[in-house]
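Morning, I've got a small favour to ask if you have a moment. I've been staring at a protein lately and its backbone has me curious. You're getting the sequence in one-letter code plus the fold written as tokens. I've dropped the whole record in just underneath, so have a look:
=====
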Amino acid sequence: MKEREELVTKIEEKLAGKAVSSRRDIPNRMYVYIEGEDLPEAVRLLFDELSGRYVILTGVDTPVGVEVLYHFSFDRVGLVVTLRVLLDKDKPEIDSITPIVRGAEWIEREIHELLGVEFVGHPNMRRLILAEDWPKGVYPLRRSYGKNTT
């Protein structure tokens, strides 16, 4: 699809110098690996400038760090673009995208609670899922959860 390939080229050009790498294993999916400091600019590009639809944010505790994935859909051309950011496991911190994408507010709260990611600048980081008496610093989606407990 010509229109999809033109969009992919535009994204690659606009993120040149920001993307650590990118890959497309299948025609309708694009993964762009970026550094955390480049996230706001990349989100503005996909959401504001190119009118991508924000789908969801996901997080994964990997053996090398906490990975945060920002998914955007370009329905008119059948393309999903995922921005991937790897955070330091000891201090997983990244700017909140809620100033750009208001719809990310709840999922950032959820990922904060379950994985311990600190979303800097989030307007309301109160509990969403876990009980108020849940132990501070214990994250149920971390690989270490449940290990070394008596």
About this structure: Strands lie at 19-23, 29-34, 53-62, 65-74, 79-87, 93-95, 118-120. The first strand starts at residue 19 and ends at 23.
